[in-house]
Amino acid sequence: MASNISKGDNAEHYKRVSSCYDSMYSDNLAAKVSIINRQLQFTSGDTVLDIGGGTAGMSQRLWKTHNLKAPVLCVDPSDAMLQIARGKMGVETIKATAEEFFVNYSDRKVFSKILMISCYHHFKDPGLVFEGVARLLSDDGVCLVTHAEYEPLLFSRLGKLLDIDYSQIAKHAEANGLKAQITSDSEVREVTKESCFSFLRNRMFSILNEFTDSEIEEGIKELDQRYDGDTVQAAYEFTIATITK
Ligand SMILES: C[S@@+](CC[C@H](N)C(=O)[O-])C[C@H]1O[C@@H](n2cnc3c(N)ncnc32)[C@H](O)[C@@H]1O
Fold first, then answer.
1. Pairwise CA distance, residues 228 & 222, whole Å
2. pLDDT tens per residue across span 77-112
3. Domains and CATH numbers, the chain
4. Among candidates 226, 231, 229, which has minimal Cα distance to 196?
5. Residue 238 Cα, ligand 1 centroid: separation in angstroms?
6. CA-closest residue to ligand 1 atom 10
7. Which residues does ligand 1 sit against, CB inside 6 Å?
8. Is the pTM of this model over 0.90?
9. Distance from residue 83's CA to the centre of ligand 1 (Å)
C-alpha cells in the first residue's frame, strides 16, 4: 500500500498541476483556511509568511479576510506554482525552498504568523527550517504546521496519504528553543463526486502518479459505492503543530 509521497523531485508534479491547482483544490483550500482561522487569531497588523505557499490560494484568502496591511509573503520553489501566485493581489513571492529561504533571507524582518501548510513532507532538512523559524518568528508570533491527515478521496489502495511524525516536528522546534503543541481539528464539507473524481483522474496528489489509469478507476468505483448520491460528505482531519517562542 502506498503510504508516503516521495521527498525526491516534485518539481515536475507541481509544474503539471499548477494551472488547475486553484480550481481543483478549491474545497481543500477552503477547509484549510477555516482550520487556520480557528487556530490563529489574526489582526490587520499581522505579518504573514506562507512557506510552501504554492499558488498563494491561502495567502490571498488570509490577506483579504483579515484586511492585512502588509502583503503575505509566499515562498515556494516551484516557478510554475509561483507564476499563478504572482498575479494575486496582497501577495509577494520569493522562489525558494523553505531551507533556502531561511538561510538566504535570514536578515528579513520578523513575521507574526508563519504557515507551513501541506508542505512539511517536502522538507529535506527540517532542523534547518526550524532554526530559521526561531530567528524569524516575532516574540508573540505563532508558526502553524499542518496537513490533512485524512481526505475523503482516499480509496483503500491509496492508503493514508502521508505519515508525518508530529513528535519529530515538536523535537525540531524544541531543539531551537521553541515550544510546540500538537492538537487536531476537522472540517466537513459537501463536494460533488464529479469534482472529487476529476481530482483523482488529474492525479492532483503526487502519489497518484504511481497508479495506472485502471487502478485509479478502480479506486473511483470504490468511492462511488462508499458514498450514496452525487455528493461526498468530505471530512478532512488535520493534526496541527502550533509553535511559539
Ligand atoms: C501540496 S502543495 C501545498 C501548497 C499550499 N501550501 C496549499 O496548502 O495549498 C506543496 C507545495 O510545497 C512546495 N515545496 C516543495 N518542496 C518544498 C520545500 N523544500 N520547501 C518549501 N516548499 C516546498 C511545492 O512546490 C508545492 O507548491
1. 12
2. 999 999 999 989 999 999 999 999 999 987 778 999
3. 11-151+159-189+233-244 (3.40.50.150)
4. 231
5. 17
6. 119
7. 10, 14, 25, 29, 32, 51-54, 57-58, 76-78, 81, 97-99, 117-119, 122-123
8. yes
9. 14
Question: What are 159's three cell numbers?
Answer: 492508503
d(C-alpha 179, C-alpha 186), whole Å: 23
Residue owning the nearest CA to atom 1 of ligand 1: 118
Per-residue confidence band for 5, with pLDDT thresholds at 50, 70 and 90? very low
Could you tell me the distance, in angstroms and rounded to a whole number, from the CA of residue 208 to the centre of ligand 1? 16
Output the CA 118–ligand 1 centroid distance in Å: 7
Q: Which residues of 51-87 are buried (b: 16+ CB within 10 A; e: fewer)?
A: bbbbbbbbbbbbbeebebebbbbbbbbbebbbebbee
- Sheet containing 231-244: give its strands across: 91-95, 72-76, 48-51, 111-117, 137-150, 231-244, 179-192
Atom of ligand 1 nearest to the CA of 206: 1
Dist. CA 115 → ligand 1 center (Å): 11
